[in-house]
Amino acid sequence: MDAEGWSWRITELKQRLNITVVDLAARANMRRATLADLQGASDTWTSVLIQVYRAAREIAPTITLHDMLTVHGEPSPIVVRRHTIRDGMEPMRDLPGVYFGTPLLRHSYAPDARDPLGTIQKLALAANIHPTAMRLLERGRTQPRISTVIQCYRVFLPFDPTLTLHDLVLLPDRDLPPDAPRYTPYLRHQDTPVAPPTDPVQADAADAGDGPISADALLDLWAQLSPQGQRVTMHYIRALLARA
């Protein structure tokens, strides 16, 4: 396993499916070189993971996301569960029907703003992700990279040792086993650690204060915008500069 605590399992996957890289790449509708480069902790977008997953399930319907990636601390056996999407949740960018699971996990294990992960700000801090990037992910404005999914997975794993990547990357029913059970919280709220009470006004203010965002993070977010989104963003930036 890579030093980052996760690694691709493409070699093992090919052996299990008895298929070549060329055939798997064709089924996944991607370039062979792209698939061949998925080694170690090669980071990429979640959409790539899902492409490979869907292609593999056409051959072996019992395949899980953990057959694509091995993650330190992952449970055994892997139980794939379905989730009930809450009102207001938006699908990941460019992935219709696929949702990021952190809003549901926060609701299950930190439903109060005073809890350790009770706000986006606290979750972002725990996962070492910029709050602005975390907020955009939860609102479906951007698509997470695999490393980001793993970071959030590790944050919630202590709350539920049975947690899998399928609880972070919420796939539509057609991509799940037909008998997949409904997810239920591993621990009840009263059993989870609770932070000392804080002033709710201060908590809201802290969650709103994102602090400076790095140039790399800005470029990453910019790259995910559509051409129209970039034009609209530049319009607002020019308007703000004109007021300065």
Question: Would you give an account of this structure?
Answer:
The chain has 244 residues and is mostly helical. It is 43% helix and 4% strand. It folds into three domains: 6-71, lambda repressor-like DNA-binding domains (434 Repressor (Amino-terminal Domain), Orthogonal Bundle), CATH 1.10.260; 99-212; 214-244. It has helices spanning 10-17, 21-28, 32-36, 46-59, 102-109, 120-127, 131-138, 146-156, 200-208, 215-224, 227-243; strands spanning 6-8, 69-71, 99-100, 169-170. The strands form two sheets. It has a two-stranded antiparallel ribbon with strand order 1-2. A two-stranded antiparallel sheet has the order 3-4.
Please give a handful of descriptors for the protein shown.
244 residues; mainly alpha; 434 Repressor (Amino-terminal Domain); two-stranded antiparallel ribbon; 11 helices; 4% strand
